[in-house]
Amino acid sequence: MPAPAARRTTADLGRPSRRGEARRGAILDAVAELVTEVGYERVTVDAIAARARASKTTMYRHWPGKAELVADALRRRAESNDPEVTDMGTLRDDLTAAVAGIVRTLTGAPSLLGLLEGIRDDATLRSLVRSQIDENAADVGRAICTRATARGESVNLASADRVMSLAVAALFMDILLTGAAPDPAAQSALIDDALMPILRAVEQ
């Protein structure tokens, strides 16, 4: 008598298959490549499907449109640069690692710089990217500050949610206006002259 088939749990049903993850990765890779090659405005869902060898039906099942595809590709890029908030041992060293991760995200593909016109003209893309930046920056800031407090370092927790958003804004403008990623000295200056003083400020 054959053994009964193993029952699938609710967790199993909600977990993407390896094939599904590979397909999703191929689609987002195609998005990143096309945005880098031709720009957001000229990318079409048809072109993404052709590059990824995927059906549009499959794509629309997971992403309502082009803006959602591009935002998800951008999020995936950010996660690959710094999938976890690295514990470097001190507040300053944690900030150094976080700032380096932001620079990699801003200068990678697809990059925010390459999406400037799309973000300006497409309200859906603008809203998605803004939400991703705000949520990720707040999560990173809280994690870094909570860890520093646990070590016994003096930190103004009221600034935890906004300090990394300020870092993103400063680094973005630097890269936009200079055309190059800030070097380690410039990154250190941002940390020592802006981020550390904000986090060391005493709450009134």
TrEMBL record:
The keyword Transcription regulation applies. Signal peptide: none annotated. GO terms for molecular function: DNA-binding transcription factor activity; transcription cis-regulatory region binding. InterPro entries: DNA-bd_HTH_TetR-type_CS (IPR023772), Homeodomain-like_sf (IPR009057), HTH-type_TetR-like_transc_reg (IPR050109), HTH_TetR (IPR001647), Tet_transcr_reg_TetR-rel_C_sf (IPR036271), TetR_C (IPR011075). Residues 44-63 bind DNA. Residues 21-81 form the HTH tetR-type domain. Pfam families: TetR_C_11, TetR_N. Keywords: DNA-binding, Transcription, Transcription regulation. This is Transcriptional regulator, TetR family. It comes from Frankia torreyi. The lineage of its organism: Bacteria, Bacillati, Actinomycetota, Actinomycetes, Frankiales.
